[in-house]
Write a structure and sequence with these properties.
single chain; alpha+beta; Pantoate--beta-alanine Ligase, Chain: A,domain 2; four-stranded antiparallel sheet
Length: 124
């Protein structure tokens, strides 16, 4: 005697197998979400550093300090509230004459997420 169709037990077993397969995908999705958030944070931090550095580019480098750091500056990019500190002439060999070495640190929730260094030079 042959039976046609699917029994309730076969359906439940198939659903359990499908559920287990889908559970295996969850860690990958969580990891993807974490990586996406980290990338978004870093991209916003780079944008924050660029904004600060662009403001400084308009200034004559000889008017910039030859040592020390600025007070933390708050800047919001997207939905991230950053704290930005600029350090001047950490490498004193790059702070002679018309040149100033500047390091920009961008922090989020107390952790540095981006750091960049540049040398500003007065062009002729």
């Amino acid at each position: 005697m042959s039976e046609k169709g699917i029994t309730l037990i076969e359906t439940i077993v198939a659903m359990l197998i499908l559920a287990l397969a889908l559970l295996g995908l969850i860690p990958g999705l969580v990891h993807f979400s974490d990586v996406n958030e980290a990338t978004s944070l870093r991209s916003a931090a780079v944008q924050a550093a660029q904004q600060v550095n662009e403001r400084i580019r308009r200034v004559d480098p000889t008017t910039l300090p030859t040592s020390g750091s600025t007070s933390p500056e708050a800047l919001t990019i997207d939905h991230y509230d950053f704290s930005i500190v600029r350090h001047f002439c950490l490498d004193t060999t790059m702070c002679i004459g018309n040149s100033r070495h500047m390091t920009t640190e961008v922090s989020f929730n107390g952790q540095t997420v981006y750091r960049t260094e540049t040398v500003f030079t007065k062009l002729r």
